[in-house]
Amino acid sequence: MAASIAPECNDIKEKYDTCFLKWYSEKYLRGKTSSNECEDLFSKYKTCLNRALKEKGIEGMVEEARRNNRESDTDFLRKE
Amino acid sequence: MKVFSSNCIFDYSWNEVSTANWRKYCPWNDKSTHVVGVDTLSRSVDPATGILRTERLITCDQSVPQWVLSLFGGSATSHVYEISYVDPIAKKVTMCSSNLTWSNVLNVQETVIYRPSLSKANSTDFNQEAKITALCGGWQKIKNKVEEASVERFSQNAKRGREGFEAVLEMSRRVFGEQREHEKRQLQS
To answer: PRELI/MSF1 domain: from which residue to which, for each copy (chain B) (predicted)?
Structure first.
C-alpha cells in the first residue's frame, strides 16, 4: 500500500487501508454496502492526517479543492 | 485548451480491476515511484444508490527542471486532488482528478472510467481523458506551447501508468490466489 504524506500516520493508515480493502472486496462488491467496520480506524487515521495537513500548511488548498469539486456529485452520485 | 484521451482493455474482471485500483500506487508498481503519498480524505457510501464516494490527496515528487522551479518558485512536490465514485450495481468506477499545485499556471482535469468491457468477456475497458489549460497571461502562442508540452508529458505518463497498473493487477491476482489457497489449507487441517 502507498505511504502517507505524513510518516507518523503510516502505521494507522496501513491498518485502515488493509481493513478497507478487505471490506471492499469481500463485502462491498458482494452487495453488503452498508457495513462500516473500518470506521474506527479511519477516524484515527483522519485525526493524524488532518493534523499533518495543517502543519504542512496545505489544508486550505485541500479544502478549496474539495469545495470546488462538490458539483461532480450531481453528475456521478446518482443511478445510471 | 488541449484534450488528451486514451482507451485500453485490461484482461482482468471489473471486480479485480476496481479492487486493485485502490493500490495502484504501491511498491508493486515500479512505474509510479514519483507518487510518494496517497491519503484518503473522506469516504462514504451513499445510502440511496450504494455508490462509494472517496476523496484522496495524491502527493508526487516530480522531476521538474531546475529552471522551472527557479522561475515559478515552489518545490518539486506537487499535490493532486482526486474524487472517485464506485457504482457497484452499474459496475462503473469514475475518478476525477485535478492538480492543486501550480493551478494558477496550468489546469489539468483528468477523468478515468473503468467499466466491464463491451468487446471482451471478463475484461475491463479503461477510458482516460485529460483537459489541459494553460492559464498564464501572455501570448496565445506561448500558452499553446505550454499546453502541447503538457499533453506530450501526460501521454508519456499515461503509458507508464498503464504498464505499472498491469504489474499491480498481476501481483494482486497472485496474492489473492495464494491467500485463498492458504485459507483452504487452514480449513482442511
So the answer is: 1-177
